[in-house]
Amino acid sequence: MFIKNLKGFKYPDMEIVRWFFKNKLDTLKNEKVLEFASHNGNNLSLFANYDYECLGVELSKEHYENAKYNFDGILKYKKFKFFNENMLDFAKNYKNLNAKVFLIPNVINFITKNELKTLLLNARKNHLYVYGGGDFSFFFLRARSIKDHRYKLGKTLENGSFILNNDEFSGEKDCLCTCYEEYELVEYLKEYLNLYDFEVIMSENINVKNKIFIKDSDIIVYGKIK
Description:
This protein has helices at residues 14-22, 42-48, 61-74, 87-93, 113-125, 182-193; strands at residues 32-36, 53-57, 80-83, 101-105, 137-144, 155-156, 161-163, 176-178, 195-209, 212-225. By secondary structure, the protein is α/β, with parallel strands linked by helices. The protein has one domain (3-146, 181-225): 3-Layer(aba) Sandwich (Rossmann fold), CATH 3.40.50.150.
């Protein structure tokens, strides 16, 4: 593998890596994984190494093209398909994908809480992941917490969202931002995805941008959905 030739991120989210092996996802055979906000395929590359069929949904045209380039031209994977689409539209319009693993990392902070509920409802209604008849899927989500430095750093909107018009350092100025409390996020997932057998952990670190210290704070939830 020629890591230096990959376009974009070079490796998966380390929390996904830990979760993957902790839950023995490396032992599953002929399964399918679906990721919303798949970026350049960096997370899905881990699954591709274990012969999963990989489906990635990415809004950015650049990241979408990088993913195809990395999987086809550099990594030489065969079982994959990337979609250059808005994940909200994708969840509404696609049906019966029946993925055994469902990933939503680092993206729901860019949509409202009502949009999140709709996304989860459509993913379930349209059978984007496996459930029913005693079957289940593995689920991973990473979201921004209210302890993040961006929280309320701008114009407040309804239901806990805001526009980052006062954010000069994180690269998200004027973007929509939605932060969550742990219990709140878990309740959404239990209600709309039937989340169970789950764990919740906090991930916090300090980044330095233009000599300004920025605290990133994320909630990570992983478990099973049925």
